[in-house]
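Many introductory courses stop at the sequence. We go one step further.
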Amino acid sequence: MENPNIKIVESYIHALRDSDLSAVPFAEDVLFEEPLIQPLNGKEAVLEYLPNVLPLIKDVKIKQHIADGEYVATLWDAETPVGLIPVCECFRVVGGQLKEIKAYFDPRSLTNPAT
């Protein structure tokens, strides 16, 4: 039996690839963190920011999920115009909605693409 929280996480990662966040079940008070910005709180803030990221993601390859209760950690690769970026993302899924998204990756290829 597949973990329903993994399905929700995959819907988010595939939405990044497809540049369509409309079907992602974000909680109204979702917390979003990544290396390039200050933490964002709330679905509205996340939906204002993520469209700026979508053009950078050409494809995704999910490598592994580790699930424990409400938490899912996912290792995946983002294919971008500056190359492949390995990502480790930690999610918290509550009541079928993404409540927390914390992305960990090396942002140097995005902030200094010439180096």
